[in-house]
Amino acid sequence: QVQLVESGGGSVQAGGSLRLSCTASPGMTICMGWFRQAPGKEREGVAGSHSDGTVVYANYAKARFTISRDNARNTLYLQINNLQPEDTAMYSCAADFRGGYCNTVQGRYDYWGQGTQVTVSS
119, 15, 3, 117: which is closest to 64 by C-alpha? Predict the structure, then answer.
């Protein structure tokens, strides 16, 4: 099992940046990912990260989102630049011990954090 705790969300103005963190206990897993759920919408994948360094992004996330890991700190990050009001959502990280392709599909992941809220005002 793994426990995931997200942090770093907040309220920002459009054009700003945030770096979200997800700390994994007792440690990182092979696949980890970020997802988001906007009010009234389905949860959608943002990015996935394999322990070998491979990363995958949803098409909408390729330009402004960066997923990264710090294995020494057992922490997964999501850097979001040029935030827009449509980025307003609850952002959650997810983890899975299985190898293979670490995509942005919810069903691929077994463990989830509680999420951190990002609110972007225009």
Answer: 15
pLDDT band for 8, please (50, 70, 90 cuts): very high
pLDDT digits (tens, 9 = 90+) for 22-80: 999 999 999 999 999 999 999 999 999 999 999 999 999 999 999 999 999 999 999 99
Dig out the tokens for 18 from the structure.
């945030």
Residue found under tokens 């394999």: 50
Cβ atoms of 95 and 109 closer than 8 Å: yes
Which among 34, 24, 20 has a CA at the least distance from the CA of 105?
34
Q: 101 with 56: CB under 8 angstroms?
A: yes
Structure confidence at residue 30 (pLDDT):
94
Beta-carbon contacts of residue 47 (< 8 Å; ≥ 6 apart):
33, 34, 55, 56, 57, 58, 61, 65, 66, 67, 78, 104
Between the alpha carbon of residue 102 and those of residues 13, 19, 20, 48, 107, the distances in Å are 31, 21, 19, 5, 11
